[in-house]
Amino acid sequence: MTTYKHLLVPVDESPMSYAAAEQALSLAKDLNCPVTIMSVIAVDPFVGVDFYKVAPAITDYFMQAEQNAQNRLAEIQQSFSREGISVDTKIIRGVAASEGIVQIANEIGADLIIMGSHGRTGVKKMMLGSVAQNVLTQSPVPVLIVKV
Question: Boundaries of each UspA domain copy (predicted)?
Fold first, then answer.
């Protein structure tokens, strides 16, 4: 069995992210390994819009997204710290979620990514894409998908 030495847990506001964080906490305790928890603040919602017409809305969106990500990461970080797990947090900005996750995994030398999946299928998956699917295909390290 492979012994993992550094876990990466990408999170957003979804319940699936929190379920993935719980799985990562359990695994990190068993393996006594450090964890990096991360969020991506992507530009996706604004691709193709006229910047000058919506600049205040974009600024507000990014400021709120940044604050939400910081709060979420701090909350999850506390739960890991309470259990004696070494934990770091990262926020990456301005890239697609899957690209940011793979980038951070490479940067920190993660050897396992644990993430939630919305479990979309069919047309919903086709129209909305799947961050988990993209990470699975792009990641050079194993990916554990947690579904609720």
Answer: 4-147
